[in-house]
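Hypothesis: this fold can be encoded by more than one sequence.
Test: take the structure tokens below, design a sequence, compare later.
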């Protein structure tokens, strides 16, 4: 690991809650780790295990999926489906020798910008402790 290495965290955020919390964090000028790359989805229920595995294949050091608070999904059960998929992805990562801690599911309400900031910082610190993604290849790197 080089001294100047910084982890890349991919964040799949639902449009209605977590993305709104991220937007609010910006409006409130809350500071959080700049290591996150946000991808907005209408619902975390659309997150497929292949999205997450492809992110790791492309060089992400950690992936977070964040949706509406449990029981408050705009698409009824989308975040519950995502939670099950994250558990499945964790088991797949373990099977291939990658730390399951590199992926996590969060439930963040639209008005909870501080919780979004804590989640991003937590995932960034977790990725720093785990070190660079061993699957990362020089030709496969997530854009900065």
């Amino acid at each position: 690991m080089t001294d100047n290495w910084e982890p890349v965290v991919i964040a799949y955020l639902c449009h209605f809650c977590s993305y709104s919390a991220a937007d609010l964090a910006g409006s409130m000028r809350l500071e959080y780790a700049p290591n996150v790359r946000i991808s907005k989805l209408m619902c975390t229920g659309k997150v497929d295990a292949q999205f997450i595995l492809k992110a790791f294949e492309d060089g992400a050091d950690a992936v977070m999926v964040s949706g509406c608070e449990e029981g408050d999904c705009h698409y009824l059960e989308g975040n519950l489906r995502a939670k099950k998929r994250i558990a499945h992805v964790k088991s797949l990562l373990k099977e291939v020798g990658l730390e399951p801690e590199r992926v996590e599911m969060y439930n963040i309400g639209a008005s909870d910008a501080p919780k979004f900031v804590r989640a991003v910082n937590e995932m960034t610190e977790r990725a720093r402790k785990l070190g660079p993604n061993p699957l990362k290849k020089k030709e496969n790197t997530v854009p900065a």
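The chain has a mean pLDDT of 91. The CA atoms of residues 11 and 61 lie 11 Å apart.
Hypothesis status: open.
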